[in-house]
Amino acid sequence: MIRSGVSALLLLMAGIVQAEALPVPLTLQHTLLVAETQSNPTIQLADSKLDLVNARKEQLLSESGLNITALAHLRAVEPSDISINRSNNDSRAQLLAKKRLYDFGYTEARESAAQSDVDSQQWLTVDAKQKHLLDIIQKFNAVLVADKGYVLKNEEMTLAFLRYDKARDRHELGTVSDIDLMELENGYRELLQERKVMEQKQRLTRKSLALALNRPDEPPAELSEPQVIWDKELPSLQAVLEKALSSNPALLAAREAVKSANRKLEAAQAKDNPVLHGEMSVADYQRETGSTHKAIAGLILEIPLYTGGKNKSDVALARAGLREAQANLRLIELAVHESVMEQVLRLETLKADMEAQQVSEEYGELYMDKNRALYELEVASDFGDAVVRVSKVILKKLQTRLDFLATEAQLAALQGQAVTDIFKTVDDGKAK
Predict the structure, then answer these.
(1) Are 354 and 230 within 8 A, CB to CB?
(2) CB atoms < 10 A from the CB of 11, how many?
(3) Tens digits of residue pLDDT in 339-350
(4) 13-77+89-428 CATH choice from 1.10.10.60, 1.20.1600.10, 2.40.30.10, 3.20.20.140
(5) Other beta carbons within 10 Å of 110
(6) Which of 8, 39, 94, 403 lies 20 to 30 angstroms, CA to CA, from 82?
(7) Dmax over Cα atoms in the chain, in whole Å?
(8) What is the DSSP string of 183-240?
(9) pLDDT-derived band of residue 380, with 50, 70 and 90 as boundaries?
């Protein structure tokens, strides 16, 4: 009852989030909430695989459970000449109960393997959901970068047009040559085309985010830039690595897969063991004879004598499966180790980039102020170049800040931490 109530609550929450339109502006936190509750093919596939291994487990448990069968026979017979009961009605109703009592470890090994399969798929489902959220973060950031790129490119284009327009007036006065005017017009036209490209990128990144949220007809109109706390002490490589090797969901899934493969090998080796069954039945006969019994109880011992080599092939297959699972586990361990190292070093690099960009931005603003004054006095004409320089610094700073946040999320996922937990800390902090 409790589980069904929780499931109903989750479905209700999913329906509420699905029914509501995306807020304006859309925050990353709300985007991840939608991603967690909105139906998505990637998550549905992972859930279906989990349902499948659970069904296989239940099927296996039913094989060793108590089986009760009701039988009804409607028969008419011609009694033997020596039979005392001369009735032709040989109908009967029977209730038969049968259960496997002991098979020397075969069933226990199979059930243990089935449970490990379920545990492995549960971790794979967690991993799939984490990767889906990481993909959402990347697509969300891509929209922000496209928006900022469009704004900055529009500023560049506007300045180029103003410079070209001013040159046209001077051209009419004969102070600007034809070739100089054409050069300015060509620069303006190129920036106008680049702005169109950035505008298309805005639409494409929004559409990509909407598709990832399974809302293809609802691309977000406006996004809110997430807060990023980058000037803080970063985790050590060793600490992150230890946590990842003990809690990474893909790694935990691979370890459960090795457990399952071990137990399947044990089951294959025990498949030829004797099997002890218990059997009971009660019956009601319309025609009773000396050989009919109202109740029967007994033990049945099955001893396989010859299987035609099938058991050897089953053991060979199970042993090959174990070697494959062990190799896969080692590959994932190495991949996690490499990923942790890459992300930790990347985090350190991004932090250093942010520190350097602080200085670049301050210098760029001073440089632009200086050239603005000279431009207004008509002493120098490279004010547009100063604007471009500052724009590039601003865009790079945004990209670095968003990359820092995405890298933190990837590190959290590698350590088995919920990606959404990062933003609980970020919400309480101050954006840098």
Answers:
(1) yes
(2) 11
(3) 999 999 999 999
(4) 1.20.1600.10
(5) 23
(6) 94
(7) 137
(8) HHHHHHHHHHHHHHHHHHHHHHHHHHHHHHTT-TT---S-BPPPP---SSPPPPHHHH
(9) very low
- Tens-digit pLDDT profile for residues 168-209: 888 888 888 889 889 888 999 999 999 999 999 999 999 999
How far, in Å, CA of 68 to CA of 62, rounded? 12
**pTM, to two decimals:** 0.80
Query: How many CA atoms within 13 Å lie on the side-chain side of 214?
Result: 19
User: By the 8 A CB rule, do 36 and 420 touch?
Assistant: yes
- Residues in Cβ contact with 276 at an 8 Å cutoff, skipping those fewer than 6 apart: 100, 101, 102, 103, 299, 300, 301, 302
Spacing of C-alpha 14 from chain mean position: 18
Spatial strand order in the sheet of 295-302: 67-73, 92-102, 275-285, 295-302
Higher-confidence residue: 115 or 10?
115
Determine the angle formed by the axes of helices 178-212 and 106-173, rounding to 10 degrees.
160
SS3 88: coil
Residue 159 CB neighbours (<10 A):
20
* Run of H or E residues at 275: strand 275-285
- Closest alpha carbon to 301 in 268, 280, 271, 273: 273
Which residues in 286-324 belong to E strands, given as ranges? 295-302
pLDDT at residue 327 tops 50: yes
Q: DSSP character for 48?
A: H
